[in-house]
From TrEMBL, chains A, B:
InterPro entries found in the cross-reference section: Ald_DH/histidinol_DH (IPR016161), Ald_DH_C (IPR016163), Ald_DH_N (IPR016162), Aldehyde_DH_dom (IPR015590), G-glutamylP_reductase_CS (IPR020593), Glu-5-SA_DH (IPR012134), GPR_dom (IPR000965)
EC numbers on record: 1.2.1.41
Gene Ontology cellular component terms for the protein in this record: cytoplasm
Function in brief: Catalyzes the NADPH-dependent reduction of L-glutamate 5-phosphate into L-glutamate 5-semialdehyde and phosphate. The product spontaneously undergoes cyclization to form 1-pyrroline-5-carboxylate.
UniProt cross-references to Gene3D superfamilies, sorted A to Z: Aldehyde Dehydrogenase, Chain A, domain 1, Aldehyde Dehydrogenase, Chain A, domain 2
Identification of the protein by name: Gamma-glutamyl phosphate reductase
HAMAP family hit by this protein: ProA (MF_00412)
Top-rank taxon: Bacteria
SUPFAM superfamilies: ALDH-like
One record GO biological process: L-proline biosynthetic process
Gene: proA
Source species: Chroogloeocystis siderophila 5.2 s.c.1
Amino acid sequence: MNLSLTALARKTRDCAQTLAVLSTEAKNQAIEAIAQALEAAADEILAANAADCAAAAQDGIPKPLYHRLKLDRAKLQSAIAGVRDVGRLADPVGEVQIHRQLDDGLILKRVTCPLGVLGVIFEARPDAAIQISALAIKSGNGVILKGGKEAIRSCEAIVKAIHLGLSQTAISPDAVQLLTTREATLELLQLDQFVDLIIPRGSNSFVRFVQENTRIPVLGHADGICHLYVDRAADLSQAVAITVDSKTQYPAACNAIETLLIHEAIAPAFLTLVAPALQQHNVELRGDARTCEILDNITPATESDWSTEYSDLILSIKVVDSLTDAIAHINEYGSGHTDAIVTENTDAAETFLSQVNAAGVFHNCSTRFADGFRYGFGAEVGISTQKLPPRGPVGLEGLVTYKYKLVGHGHIVATYSGDNAKSFAHKDLD
Amino acid sequence: MNLSLTALARKTRDCAQTLAVLSTEAKNQAIEAIAQALEAAADEILAANAADCAAAAQDGIPKPLYHRLKLDRAKLQSAIAGVRDVGRLADPVGEVQIHRQLDDGLILKRVTCPLGVLGVIFEARPDAAIQISALAIKSGNGVILKGGKEAIRSCEAIVKAIHLGLSQTAISPDAVQLLTTREATLELLQLDQFVDLIIPRGSNSFVRFVQENTRIPVLGHADGICHLYVDRAADLSQAVAITVDSKTQYPAACNAIETLLIHEAIAPAFLTLVAPALQQHNVELRGDARTCEILDNITPATESDWSTEYSDLILSIKVVDSLTDAIAHINEYGSGHTDAIVTENTDAAETFLSQVNAAGVFHNCSTRFADGFRYGFGAEVGISTQKLPPRGPVGLEGLVTYKYKLVGHGHIVATYSGDNAKSFAHKDLD
């Protein structure tokens, strides 16, 4: 363990303790100060990014990675606008979830409070550093950022501006830290004494690596294997539109579908409609035996197709005998992200929504709606496919926890025990 | 991995899927059927327990363990009454937490749902099997029980009765499983594909062992190192009563205090009052240097005292220079369970409640109030000292999660993207 990283993490934790008790107004002022400092440093940030991009191009990094790394003036302005959007979000800290009189003068409150310190590990995208810093400040948390090595100059310029902005405010610049060495990622994952939540942003394999190498809770998901089931009672033209949207609207997204399940009763009719619609969008179709009987010239699917997230214009298709079989397939091969049914039969829909074990269960709409912004959270911190809350798209509420505050006037438990025990009132207030 | 345990866990999971969609009425009927079956099998259960106790006595198990193992008719009746109490609790499943119109005809609901399968590992207490089975059914979860080997006959008799009770209901007896072999505990901890939450009930070292040997989320806490800080502005007689209650009302409880922190300005006056009051309850006092200067004949505390949970009539005492020092000591040595301040100064109280990092932060009352029943939850599934929710005493809500249900009428995301993107309404309903 690198002693200096431990010392840095401890400083961030101590600083976060002060940040935790700041007013909404003080936090919003700091967020505005960050926005202004980023605007003032725009030229410097863009120059640093240009240097990162030049180095990356020389190293021949893949084109999609290069696009994520590249920061032009419009993208930077949009990221700064995003900072001000975070300023306008409701403060997630200080929400009273339980307010209960246990007895005369003994009042219990459950109140939301910051987690403490966030560890955010992202790959090439430097604008992620901007967004997550604003979210951390708004939720009263310190944050330790670790960006990809391709983005190191950009991240340094961004964090320098954030520090300059914070130096004008009630918040210590130490609340936002940047790690730059390659070794730092593994060390960060070991700091469970100081870091309360890890947010990994990157490829599935990267997220899985993080999940398997830390005892700190991780907010994120490795896989997004989403399904669309077209029931025997589906409106077929609606089902075609939903299939095309769920697959092609943004195929690299985690909420795009990978597998289409079709009830055997409508399989010939539906496949005849949906296949050309998908092929028009250049989707490669891989079908099970029954699908291949109906459609000519498509690739047969193999067992591994059912558990593959293509993140690309490829779709596996399976004909099932029943709703029950569709649900069983999804619960076996799905990743618990988002699965949808198209049907006019409300009983079938209700069964699907109840029995499919996923963060999102949708009826007659595209899986692509599974998103914090579309849900109206104002921001999306991540999408979780674990079963315990927070589950699904997570907004600012994923960056806070709660504590129980109990205020009495000398109350002791002996009063409520033994032979002459007094009863509790347990009366909810407000 | 024992194949039969995997098969059993899979069966429990499949069975839980059916249980998840049952009505509150059907679950309550099953709970009443369990209560009646346990009443009918009382003689058999007590005979099995007598055999367990005889064997345990012959093996010379420690007295406290023997007392937890021993089930007399009154204790069994009280456990059965507890089952009926669970029947009367509000159903934690189906609660609508978010109800939002995203656009015309596109309705989002966040609804609570069962976790799936609980793994409950407990030591000698056979009545734990009764309580946790009722809680599992009420929350719509399957449960795999693993009792201590001393309680094997008792647990078998109890689960036999529960199965008999369930066989008369809509719930398959497979929803409640009992493991009896010693190897089963470790195997259970590996079943992250089928088990969604582990609840360990036992010693601190046992809970720590479970936490360190599973990837399944664990509900529980290893340590309960709770503090009471007596501020310079404390009402001293109130502080004495709270100290005595927090330490002696039930010293083995996790919410009893282990360390008393005292502001130096009132240390001589307060120690002179509180020491005899504690010693009257046979509490052994261990003081830091300044405490030892004020009190004669007490044991000096060593560094290890500050991080020891005595679970016994022992109390470490430290004189601090300030509120800040008290908070720093607690955040360094505490276990995040429950810490209290006694003061008439509301600013000091507010600072303490905000800055102490614990599940429970109390003002002018005993730490012993940190308990699900006293908080009015009706039941306590466990107490969590982790930072992420659920934190602190956890009632039935700790056994459920939520899913997002989105219902549309053919809605696709393409409508809300691109040049002519439609805006979302994001209107909360009800």
